[in-house]
Amino acid sequence: MHLYGTQKINSNGHLEIGGVDAEELARIYGTPLIVYDIALVRDRARSFLKAFEEEGVSGQVAYASKAFSSIAMFRIVRDEGLSLDVVSGGELYTAIRSGYPAERIHFHGNNKSEEEIRMAFREGVGCIVVDNFHEIGMIEQISEELALPMDVLIRVTPGIEAHTHDFITTGQEDSKFGFDLNNGQADEAFRLLSGISRIRILGLHCHIGSQIFDTAAFNLAAGSLMRKVAAWREEDGYTCPVLNLGGGFGIRYTDEDHPLEPEEYVRAMIRTVKEAAAESDYPVPELWIEPGRSLVGEAGTTLYTAGSEKEVPETRTYLSVDGGMSDNIRPALYGAAYSSAAALRMDEPHTSAYTIAGKCCESGDKLIEQAYLPDVEPGDLIAVFCTGAYGYAMASNYNRMPRPAVVFVEDGDHRAAIRRETYDDLIRLELEAAGIGKEEVR
């Protein structure tokens, strides 16, 4: 059993996170409950920043907020000195409402609307990551109309296929994201953006995939981008201030996963860029990265309450919990694997095999295909680890399931970051749209 961050087994045999007993958290906040170990988030943020400092390279670490967007998390990473990557007007709005400095926000997205681009200009974001030719036209029109400048990065697909799942591979040539680096699209985007008077091209951006466990693909991507900017200097006299090499650094979901320490990815990319710059007598650009999962994934643990059990002779035993694909769709979406434990029986042998199933009305609502636990009784508290990324962020109200509460724990304290949805929350927008008061439907 692998424990993460501040997790430990306390004297009661209970799982403890951030100095707080899981039993206490479940009693106060109910289940399902997503618990974030904030000390681990801070430690990961500082490790990334330290890698740049130790390698002597200027850089920015931007939290890829799609992993988990909330005002409370934004304030944590803001206070740790990170920048922020947003991909929609909603994420940008949340960031601004959280008090995030706009100049530290990078606006991504493969289909930004005109209103989203206007919003980015009005708020004065640090840069827009340009994804396609349609967007270039809108940026030109809006910058002229508002008479406002904007820094941009050109997102490119370098033709690198990381060893990851097809659904989360984004750097290969066949991708909905970015300009192809090898067929002239990136060069055309560079020429168009160079001709817009209020636009400054900061440099290139790429993101080659997610849940990557080695540095080889990152090194190949960094080398490809450096060769391109070296060619642009030779052809157009342009010297690139920034290279953004994205994120995708892997984490340990199960014992079969063997990721590097987060800072090792950064050091490898920095060294590749330094070597490529030396070969071309090119100034080493400022390097940006965008960790999301690797900042918050292992920091999250979801607590569930066990319910019904069903044995299929000679096949499996289903153990149903009070959540499922409505709070964690990743197993159903692309077969993501997790590990688990009986949170209040941690010191007992975990030798009984279960398929942990959710309560949604889908046969595919299975959180873990083969989980080893003690002999579980209804009411036992089940912990599923590493749910801090793309859990709550992708949660839904399927089957009219209220989304769970989110709590932050640190140094023995706990506080609600997001309250649990109620049944009233589920129908609120319908009542407002119809002009119906709650008392009229009881």
UniProtKB/TrEMBL annotation:
PROSITE patterns, A to Z: ODR_DC_2_2
Residues that coordinate or bind substrate: R293, R330, Y334, E362, Y390
Gene3D superfamilies for the chain: Alanine racemase, Lyase, Ornithine Decarboxylase, Chain A, domain 1
Pathway(s) of this molecule: Amino-acid biosynthesis; L-lysine biosynthesis via DAP pathway; L-lysine from DL-2,6-diaminopimelate: step 1/1
Enzyme Commission no: 4.1.1.20
Residues of the active site: C361 (proton donor)
InterPro entries: Ala_racemase/Decarboxylase_C, DAP_deCOOHase_LysA, De-COase2_CS, De-COase2_N, Orn/DAP/Arg_de-COase, PLP-binding_barrel
Catalysis: reaction(s): meso-2,6-diaminopimelate + H(+) = L-lysine + CO2
Residues binding pyridoxal 5'-phosphate: G248, E290, P291, G292, R293, Y390
HAMAP family referenced in this protein's UniProt entry, alphabetically: LysA
Protein name: Diaminopimelate decarboxylase
Organism: Bhargavaea cecembensis DSE10
